[in-house]
Amino acid sequence: MTVATTPDARDQENPDGFEHPVFFYSSPDEFLAGTVPFIEAALSADEPAAAAVPRHNLDSLRKALGASAERVMLIDMTDAGANPGRIIPGVLRSFVDAHKGRNRVRIIGEPIWPGRSELEYPACVQHEALLNLAFNGRPVTKLCPYDAEGLSPQAIADARATHPLVIDSTGRHPSEHYDPGRILTDYNQPLAPAPRTAIERVADKPTLDNARWFVTSFGRSAGLSSMQLVDLEIAVTELLTNSIQHGGGTGTFRVWTEGAHFVCEVSDVGHITDPLAGRMPKDESQAHGRGLVLVNQVVDLFLAHTSPRGTTIRIYLRLPGA
User: Fold this and answer.
1) DSSP labels for 76-88?
2) Which of 159, 162, 272, 309 is the most exposed place for a label (fewest CB within 10 A)?
3) What digits encode the pLDDT tens for the residues 240-252?
4) CATH superfamily of 7-186
5) Which of 107, 49, 56 is nearest to 78 (CA)?
6) Which residue positions in the chain have pLDDT lower than 70?
7) Cα separation of 253 and 264, whole Å?
8) For residue 304, which of 265, 270, 273 has the smallest C-alpha distance?
9) Transmembrane stretches, by residue range (predicted)?
10) Rounded distance, CA 314 to CA 130, Å?
C-alpha cells in the first residue's frame, strides 16, 4: 500500500486551519507505513507531535520510532479514551492548548478500533464528527487510523462521513461522503428504555442532597469502589444541578445495574443545543457547561439524547472485577 502523507501536500491544502484525514490500513505494517512518516515529518519541522492509539498499536509505534519516541507524547487510547466523551477535552485539547503559538501541532488519534463495544460506538462516531467543529481554524493536523480489515462496514462508511480527507490504497483525496452534520443527527437517537428493575425518583433543589445520597447508596450496594463512589457523587450532583438550573427545575433519575456496569440516567425537559456541550474545556468565565465536561472525566461512558422535547443523559461506571 502506498500512503500519501507528505507534509508539503498536506500543508498546501490547509496551511492555517484544521486538517482531519482518515487513514485506512489493513495490516500492522500498513499502520506503521502511514503513521511513522507522519510523526517523523512533525519532528523534522520541530512541531509538537502526539499519538493516542490503542495499546497494541502504541507498542509497535514506539518500537518503530526508536529513540525518536522520546520526543513524542504517546498515549494509550484504550485507557485515556475509554469514554469517548473525554478525548477532546482530556487528550486532544490539553495537548494542543499546551502548544499554543506553534505553527502547527500534529496528532495521531485512533478512537475506534476492533473491540470497541456496540454500546460505546455512537459516542465514538459523534466524537469524530465533532472534531471538525472543536478544532475549526486551529493549526492542527489530526490523522485518524482505521483498521479497514477489523472494523465493520458501517464504521468505515461513518469514517468517510466524519473526515473531509481520505488516505487509502488509492492515495489521498477528498471524501465524497463527508457530512458530519448528518452523523450527529443520525446518532442522536433515543436511548434504549431503562429496564423495569430500574429505580426511579425525581429531584429538585430542596431534595438534591437526598437524591445524591440515594444514588451513591445504590452504587455502594452494587459494589462500586470508594473512589468510584466519589466520582458517582460528582457526576450525579452535576447532572441533577444542570437539570434543576436549565431543565425545568427538576430532574428524573433512574439507577440500575446492567451486565458489568452500574448505570444512572437523568432526564429533564431541557434541550442541549450546543453539540460540543460536555466535550470542550471551559474557562472560568464560562460556568455553564463545565459540569458536563467534569462528568465526562469521571465516568466510564457518557451517552445522551437531546431534542426540543427533553434530554436524557446516561452514565456508566464499570463494576470492580467485571
Assistant:
1) EHHHHTSSGGGHI
2) 309
3) 999 999 999 999 9
4) P-loop containing nucleotide triphosphate hydrolases (3.40.50.300)
5) 56
6) 1-16, 282-289
7) 7
8) 265
9) none
10) 19
State the Cα torsion 240-120-127-274 to the nearest 10°: -30
Locate the DSSP E strands across the chain.
Answer: 21-25, 49-53, 73-76, 105-109, 140-147, 165-168, 171-174, 199-203, 251-258, 261-268, 301-307, 310-318
pLDDT of residue 281: 75
Count of all residues that appear for the chain in the document: 322
pLDDT at position 9 is 35
CATH class of 199-318: alpha beta
Q: Domain ranges in the chain?
A: 7-186, 199-318
For residue 85, what is its C-alpha cell?
466523551
Residue with cell 466520582: 231
Q: Tell me how far CA of residue 131 lies from CA of 42, 114, 234, 255, 288, in angstroms.
A: 20, 21, 26, 31, 21
Burial-class residue 63 by CB neighbours within 10 Å (0-12, 13-18, 19+): exposed
